[in-house]
From TrEMBL:
<protein>
    <recommendedName>
        <fullName>Large ribosomal subunit protein uL13</fullName>
    </recommendedName>
</protein>
<comment type="subunit">
    <text>Part of the 50S ribosomal subunit.</text>
</comment>
<keyword id="KW-0689">Ribosomal protein</keyword>
<dbReference type="GO" id="GO:0022625">
    <property type="term" value="C:cytosolic large ribosomal subunit"/>
</dbReference>
<dbReference type="GO" id="GO:0006412">
    <property type="term" value="P:translation"/>
</dbReference>
<dbReference type="InterPro" id="IPR023563">
    <property type="entry name" value="Ribosomal_uL13_CS"/>
</dbReference>
<dbReference type="Pfam" id="PF00572">
    <property type="entry name" value="Ribosomal_L13"/>
</dbReference>
<dbReference type="InterPro" id="IPR005823">
    <property type="entry name" value="Ribosomal_uL13_bac-type"/>
</dbReference>
<comment type="function">
    <text>This protein is one of the early assembly proteins of the 50S ribosomal subunit, although it is not seen to bind rRNA by itself. It is important during the early stages of 50S assembly.</text>
</comment>
<dbReference type="InterPro" id="IPR036899">
    <property type="entry name" value="Ribosomal_uL13_sf"/>
</dbReference>
<dbReference type="InterPro" id="IPR005822">
    <property type="entry name" value="Ribosomal_uL13"/>
</dbReference>
<dbReference type="GO" id="GO:0017148">
    <property type="term" value="P:negative regulation of translation"/>
</dbReference>
<comment type="similarity">
    <text>Belongs to the universal ribosomal protein uL13 family.</text>
</comment>
<dbReference type="InterPro" id="IPR005755">
    <property type="entry name" value="Ribosomal_uL13_euk/arc"/>
</dbReference>
<dbReference type="GO" id="GO:0003729">
    <property type="term" value="F:mRNA binding"/>
</dbReference>
<dbReference type="GO" id="GO:0003735">
    <property type="term" value="F:structural constituent of ribosome"/>
</dbReference>
<keyword id="KW-0687">Ribonucleoprotein</keyword>
Length: 140
C-alpha cells in the first residue's frame, strides 16, 4: 500500500499504519515532510528538542537514546513506538515500513491512497513535520 502523507495528522496516520503493518501489509509513505503535527509551533519544537537533548543529560559520552531529526525518520520512530518492537512480530512488521521525503522516481507512476481517518481537515493550529525538522537542524 502506498500512502501520500500530505495533509495527514502524524499520530493518526502512524496508528493506522502500525495496525496495517501488524496485519502483514507492506506500507510506503511518500511526502513525509508534509505530514502535519497538531498544536502550536513552539510546543512541537520544544517536545522534539527535549528528546534530542535527552542523550546528553546523564552522560555526554553515552550514545543513547537516539531520536531522529529528519521528517521520514520521525514518522518511522512514531510508528515504531506503536509496535511491540521487543517481540519478533513487531520487528518484522517494522521492516515492512518505508518512508520517503518527496516522491522517488520509482513511485511516480503508481497510484497513491489517502487515509480518511487521518486527514487534517479544518484543525486551526498545526505545523508540518518538515518545518520541525529544519528547526531541529535536519538537512534534506
Amino acid at each position: 500500500m502506498i500512502i501520500d502523507g500530505e495533509g495527514h495528522i502524524l499520530g493518526r496516520l502512524a496508528s493506522v499504519t502500525s495496525k496495517k503493518l501488524l496485519e502483514g501489509e507492506e506500507i510506503v509513505v511518500l511526502n513525509a515532510e508534509k505530514i502535519m503535527l497538531t498544536g502550536s509551533k513552539d510546543w512541537a519544537y520544544a517536545k522534539y528538542k527535549q528528546r534530542l537533548d535527552r542523550a546528553s543529560i546523564s552522560n555526554p559520552r553515552d550514545l543513547g537514546p537516539k531520536y531522529p531529526r529528519r521528517p521520514e525518520e520521525i514518522f518511522r520512530r512514531t510508528v515504531r513506538g506503536m509496535l511491540p518492537i521487543k517481540k519478533s512480530k513487531g520487528r518484522t512488521a517494522f521492516k515492512g515500513l518505508k518512508a520517503y521525503v518527496g516522491v522517488p522516481k520509482e513511485f511516480n507512476d503508481l497510484e497513491t491512497s489517502k487515509v480518511p481517518d487521518a486527514e487534517y481537515g479544518n484543525i486551526k493550529k498545526g505545523i508540518e513535520l518538515g518545518e520541525i525538522s529544519k528547526l531541529l537542524g535536519a538537512k534534506f
